[in-house]
């Protein structure tokens, strides 16, 4: 739990990107991820993943110190402007928010 008693959170986006928009999508994602990683309060980590069976299906996950941190970022004018180029690549998008209940420990190399 965070200092204010909130649990860490994971936000999951399942999006469709036509193959001809893949390069624009990945370029827009790179811009977003570097800016977020360099200073959005509460952001911990994110990943972008491509389906192994459907090249137009993508998964973006991000982990936050709390859902409140993510929601504050999502409401900001900077967020809307920054993610607009990425959203313009989507033909479909869904998002789900989770509180992290438990996690396996990170294994140290032998």
UniProtKB/TrEMBL annotation:
- Quote the Pfam families the UniProt record gives: ABM
Manganese as a keyword of this entry, yes or no, is no
Write down the InterPro entries for this protein, in alphabetical order. ABM_dom, Dimeric_a/b-barrel
UniProt cross-references to PROSITE patterns, sorted A to Z: ABM
Ranges where the ABM domain occurs = 9-98
Q: Which UniProt keywords apply?
A: Monooxygenase, Oxidoreductase
Q: Which Gene3D superfamilies match?
A: 3.30.70.100
GO molecular-function terms, A-Z = monooxygenase activity
Protein's UniProt name: Antibiotic biosynthesis monooxygenase
């Amino acid at each position: 739990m965070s200092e204010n008693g909130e649990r860490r959170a994971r936000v999951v986006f399942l999006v469709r990107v036509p193959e001809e928009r893949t390069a624009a999508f990945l370029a827009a994602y790179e811009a977003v991820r570097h800016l977020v990683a360099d200073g959005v309060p509460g952001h911990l980590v994110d990943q972008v993943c491509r389906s192994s069976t459907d090249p137009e299906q993508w998964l973006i996950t991000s982990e936050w110190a709390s859902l409140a941190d993510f929601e504050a970022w999502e409401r900001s004018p900077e967020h809307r402007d920054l993610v607009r180029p990425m959203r313009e690549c989507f033909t479909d998008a869904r998002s789900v928010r989770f509180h992290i209940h438990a996690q396996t420990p990170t294994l140290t190399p032998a």
